[in-house]
Specification:
- This protein is of the alpha+beta class and about 180 residues long.
- The chain has one domain.
- The protein is built from nine helices and four strands; from the N terminus they run H-E-H-H-E-H-H-H-E-H-H-H-E.
- Strands 1-2-4-3 form a four-stranded antiparallel β-sheet.
- It is elongated and about 55 Å long.
- The two termini are about 35 Å apart.
- It is found in: Cell membrane.
- Its main location: membrane.
- It is a multi-pass membrane protein.
- InterPro entries: Pra-immunoreactive, RDD.
- Keywords: Cell membrane, Membrane, Transmembrane, Transmembrane helix.
């Protein structure tokens, strides 16, 4: 594309005038005609705008998320220990760790597929959306969670990826075709 066609494409794509600030109307990037996207559009007022959040905002949200997750896992581990009392069993520790990963997975995938926000994401005005701008489906949420766990356990390389990614996405967002956006009223 040459420069004039490229500028025209982006102004049509994001429904904005040349020289306008890079804050896009929420409805302009949701151009997909999927039914879940149409339902997603009905939840937001016309004045809602989104932009790309900074790395610091996302990391602070992750820090807050870890505090909430510790509380959720504490309650889940209490229930697990009430049900399985034999802690000396060979299979107790791996079963307990798998159980905690499943509980965390259910926590994240449920919130990501039902509104795109966990409590810390609501506090920091962040939302997870698919690459086409719609809601995450169950498969995307599961893939995002799986790659996030792998990326974090590999010395945080999935998080550090954001420093080198052209769009500033985490590795799990890139692989799951999702993105985190900052919501502005």
């Amino acid at each position: 594309m040459n420069t004039s066609n490229e500028a025209s494409y982006y102004s049509r794509r994001f429904n904005r005038q040349a020289g306008a600030p890079p804050v896009f109307c929420f409805f302009s990037i949701l151009h997909c005609n999927k039914t879940n996207t149409k339902a997603f559009l009905n939840e937001f007022p016309d004045t809602m705008k989104i932009s790309a959040p900074g790395l610091g905002r996302r990391l602070l949200s992750m820090l807050y998320e870890s505090l909430i997750l510790v509380a959720v896992l504490f309650i889940a581990s209490f229930v697990f220990h009430l049900v399985f009392r034999d802690t000396s069993s060979v299979f107790f520790r791996p079963a307990f760790q798998l159980y905690l990963l499943v509980v965390a997975g259910i926590y994240f995938t449920w919130f990501w597929t039902h509104g795109g926000q966990t409590l810390p994401m609501q506090t920091w005005k962040l939302r997870v959306i698919s690459a086409d701008g719609g809601r995450l489906n169950l498969k995307q949420a599961f893939v995002r969670y799986l790659f996030a766990v792998i990326g974090i356990f590999l010395f945080g390389c999935g998080i550090l990826w954001a420093l080198f990614d052209r769009d500033g996405l985490f590795l799990h967002d890139r692989l799951a075709s999702t993105r985190i956006v900052k919501i502005e009223q």
